[in-house]
Structures are given as structure tokens and as C-alpha cells.
Amino acid sequence: MKITKKQLRKIIKEESANLHEETGFGSVTMNYSALADTHTRNLIVDISTEYHAEEMRLYKSEPTAFGGQTFNQWAQQVSRAAEDLEFELEDLAHQPLQKIARLAVKLTDEISARLHNGEYA
After folding, report:
1. Quick check: 101 and 12 in contact, CB under 8 A?
2. What is the dihedral of CA 78, 17, 40, 106, to 10 degrees?
3. Among 2, 54, 67, 75, fewest CB within 10 Å belongs to which?
């Protein structure tokens, strides 16, 4: 299961709004760079968390499609895949948010393929 573009846009929009709200649009004393780094990190965590939730919903909706795997086995595999996604996105943290968003869609597809091919078992 991948994160949809709509979900990703919503996450980015929320983080962007939070960033603008906290900076006060022109507050000279704010360390914008540090704040932007914090919001980029939050975005990465949000993407990873949403990915994990989507994969777990997939199991709950079709448990028989998982070849006898238990919920706990699947949860462990999904957690490892979500950690990989987060790690790979952190390598992109210095990139603009729009680029992170584009690459996040590609990465979630790649990691989902690996997850569903049993690479995290």
C-alpha cells in the first residue's frame, strides 16, 4: 500500500502551515533554518507514520491475503519497512519539501514492493 498523493499533499500542507504559523512571517529573532529543519523532520516522521498505518489497515481489511502471517508478524515487517522509509527520506532532508514529496511517493512504492515480496520477513 502506498501513500496517495492526496495524503502526501495534506501532510505537506499541514507542515507548511505549522512552519508559517511558528515563524510569524518576519520575526527577526526566529532561527528559520532550524525551524525549517524541525518541520522537515516532522514531515518525514508523518510520512513514515502514515505509511505504517496504511500497511496495517491493508492487513486488517484482507488478513487472508497474507498467506497465514499473523498480525504481529506483519506489524514487525511493516515497522522495519517504515523505518527504512524514514531513513531514506532523512537522506533527502536538505532538499526542498516539494522534492521530498515527489521522492517520497517513489520511495513508498519501492519499499512497499520490497515489503510485499517478503524482504522484511
Report:
1. yes
2. 50
3. 67
pLDDT digits (tens, 9 = 90+) for 65-108: 888 889 999 999 999 999 999 999 888 877 877 787 788 888 99
Neighbours of 45 (CB within 10 A): 15
**Which letter does DSSP use for residue 83 in this model?**
H
CB 51 within 8 A of CB 85: yes
CB 11, CB 51: distance < 8 Å? no
Residue 31 region, left (φ>0) first, then alpha (ψ -120 to 50), else beta? beta
Interacting residues of 66 by C-beta distance below 8 A, sequence separation 6+: 59, 74
Cell triple for residue 120?
A: 522484511
Q: Which residue has the higher pLDDT, 62 or 33?
A: 62
Cβ of 85: how many Cβ atoms within 10 Å? Answer: 24
C-alpha cell, 17? 502551515
pLDDT score recorded for residue 31: 54
Cβ atoms of 8 and 105 closer than 8 Å:
yes
